């Protein structure tokens, strides 16, 4: 029994290496986020939960790299209060390439449930 458990643990360690995220380019810059609650007023007694984890997102040129997205999210790029790009990001998406036609300062929004992470990026 003990050998089966050890073999299982060893197999899990190998599996983590096989499914590792691709490494970030050396020029990738982290995107700092602020957190906003989309619907801060909910009826009833709130449920005590841990705060949501802030995603680690890096940008290099027009490519966004997701280092720790453990949930599905909606990605929005906003310029001058107009959504210029929208995409769904799944928990297993390591990167998203943004269109080359979008240039200048943009507001990057990641929406996860009732939470929105907002950061400024330059394309």
Q: State the distance separating the first and last CA atoms.
A: 56 Å
Overall pLDDT metric: 79
User: Describe the biggest sheet?
Assistant: 5 strands, antiparallel
Structure classification:
mainly beta
The parts where pLDDT drops under 50 for at least 5 residues are none
The percentage helix is 10-25%
Number of helices: 1
Inertia-based shape: globular
Strand fraction: 35-45%
The largest sheet has its strands arranged as 2-9-8-5-6
Order of helices and strands: HEEEEEEEEE
Q: Give the radius of gyration.
A: 18 Å
Q: What's the number of extended β-strand segments?
A: 9
Description:
The protein has about 120 residues and is mainly beta. About 15% of the residues lie in helices and about 40% in strands. It is built from 1 helix and 9 strands. The strands form 2 sheets. The protein has a 5-stranded antiparallel sheet, with no helix packed on it. The protein has a 4-stranded antiparallel sheet with strand order 1-3-4-7, with no helix packed on it. A hairpin with a 2-residue loop joins strand 8 (about 105-110) and strand 9. The longest helix is centred in the N-terminal third of the chain and has 17 residues, at about 1-20. About 10% of the residues are buried. The model has no long low-confidence stretch (mean pLDDT about 80).
């Amino acid at each position: 029994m003990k050998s089966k458990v050890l073999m299982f643990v060893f197999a899990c360690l190998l599996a983590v290496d096989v499914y590792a995220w691709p490494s970030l380019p050396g020029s990738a810059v982290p995107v700092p986020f602020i957190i906003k609650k989309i619907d801060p007023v909910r009826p009833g007694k709130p449920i005590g939960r841990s705060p949501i984890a802030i995603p680690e997102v890096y940008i290099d040129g027009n490519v966004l790299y997701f280092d720790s997205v453990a949930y599905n999210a909606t990605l929005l790029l906003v310029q001058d209060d107009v959504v210029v790009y929208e995409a769904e990001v799944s928990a297993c998406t390591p990167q998203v390439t943004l269109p080359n036609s979008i240039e200048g300062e943009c507001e990057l929004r990641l929406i996860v449930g009732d939470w929105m992470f907002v950061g400024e990026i330059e394309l």
